[in-house]
Amino acid sequence: MTKKISWGSSLVATLIGLNPWFLQCLSFRFDSPYMALSIFLFVSSLFIGGERNSFYVFFLVSVFFTVCYV
């Protein structure tokens, strides 16, 4: 089973990896897991498919947790 890396995922990984604010956050041990979790929650909320109602609920909950708790 071969898995190819798409250009889109490479571009997103490069933009996140080269972002100076994200790289600065990685230098602090206590901040980096929370910053990575907030980016993961935001991006995953955009890619969750299925029903429209479940998408909006998941999107709002993940944005709420990103802003308030992370």
Automatic annotation (TrEMBL):
<dbReference type="InterPro" id="IPR025686">
    <property type="entry name" value="Glucos_trans_II"/>
</dbReference>
<feature type="transmembrane region" description="Helical">
    <location>
        <begin position="6"/>
        <end position="23"/>
    </location>
</feature>
<dbReference type="Pfam" id="PF14264">
    <property type="entry name" value="Glucos_trans_II"/>
</dbReference>
<protein>
    <submittedName>
        <fullName>Glucosyltransferase domain-containing protein</fullName>
    </submittedName>
</protein>
<keyword id="KW-0472">Membrane</keyword>
<keyword id="KW-0812">Transmembrane</keyword>
<keyword id="KW-1133">Transmembrane helix</keyword>
